[in-house]
Design goal:
This protein is of the alpha+beta class and 296 residues long. The protein has one domain: Double-stranded beta-helix. It contains eight helices and 15 strands. The strands form four sheets. A seven-stranded mixed sheet has the order 1-2-3-13-5-15-4, with helices on one face. Strands 12-6-14 form a three-stranded antiparallel sheet. The protein is globular, with a radius of gyration of 18 Å. It starts with a strand and ends in an 11-residue tail after the last strand.
Amino acid sequence: MTLSIRAIDANRQNFAGEVSGVNIAQGVSAADAAAIEKAMDHYAVLVFHDQHLDDAQQYTFSQHFGPMEKATGDIAQAEQRRLSMDINDISNLDKDGKVLARDDRRRLFNLGNQLWHSDSSFKTTPSKYSLLSARTIPSAGGNTEFADMRAAWDALEPALQDECKPLICEHSQIFSRSTLGFTDFTEEEQIKYAPAPQRLVRRHTGSGRLSLYLASHAGAIQGWPVPEARAYLRDLNEHATQRKFVYAHVWRQDDLVMWDNRCTMHRARRYNHTQVRDMHRTTVADSAPTLQQMAA
């Protein structure tokens, strides 16, 4: 098979590509992995259909793209975990494979995935790529939407771009969940999810393009009054998630979707919570904290 990639939307040739000619379960050559990474610099979201993967195969493929994160962004206790710490459990299942009750604390926390966000922006060193494998999908709903933060940046007025460039935001899951009314954090979790500083504007190392770095986790701007900062960030989020910047992925069984957290936001959409939605995510860590990376 020969690897090939085409734009999913002919009107947006540089956002969201569909990959063919690769069987990830059988292993990917270094040359194909390099071609995929180059395509990520261009598209930021890549879709691989019909990838029948187990966790080990998904993890091996992900390792081509950098050091791997551990699954430390949820509130599941060790004895509640269904998957290893190498795999983020993006599902509505308990360790016995049963659907979580509607009021289960883990499910309520995970509803934060329906807010626009960038994975691990609440960590000092956030994530580079996320790779999400659809193991079981509901009969309807549960799509994932992606917003192109490069295009959103390009569409800002120059004066607003200049204002954004030096700003440092503080990201925390405590803030993002609080916007949904979830405040049930233990003392240990409050320490774990202490705010992490992130640049508001980032320069992508692969493409050189500038992009906004936003997320529902961003609840403050350093040096600004909190109400002013939140109003400002709300305006930027509304701008960045206009439909013209968004690709909505309708999941098929055994899809693998890979995205660049450095220049996209994403969110899951609602579905029938009594049906199984079992998604396994591997996450590639970024090279360094954003404050140590090249300024915009």
